[in-house]
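On clarity, I found the account of how folds are encoded harder to follow than it need be. What matters is that the chain and its backbone geometry are given together, residue for residue. The format is easy to grasp once an entry is in front of the reader. For illustration, here is how one protein appears when written out as sequence plus structure tokens.
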Amino acid sequence: MWDKKKDENESGNFTVLGKDVTFKGIVHFHSTVQLDSSIEGEIHAKGMLVIGENATIRGSIIAETVVNRGKIHGNVTATAKIQLLKSGILLGDVSSPSFSMEEGAYFKGSIDMGSHPVVDELEHTPLVITEAPQRLNVSRPILVETERGN
């Protein structure tokens, strides 16, 4: 009976660090956390990490899910997803299988969504164009085929 109550409480844990908290260093969370504070360093979260509008994070974040309404200056890695909401600012590289961004949010960096079978196949297949267009603006190498006379 006691073990059952303990499991229910652990899964329902929710931690909030308010505006008056300033932290430097490495912090680990094992449940859902909402940060409205200023943190400089590394954040490791096993569950969901919610960055509030008043939060400023300078450093790297590794979590299951990251929801950002505040300011992040650093790289973010999420095993499930990253959501950048309307007031959110993210300056840094993102690595997650799912990334979404609301209109009004700001992002500057690169996104790596990992491996995907279709994408892997496309990357190894050259793009073939039979006629060279007058204006060509592509981000990967192309192969232009022309007819050859014997």
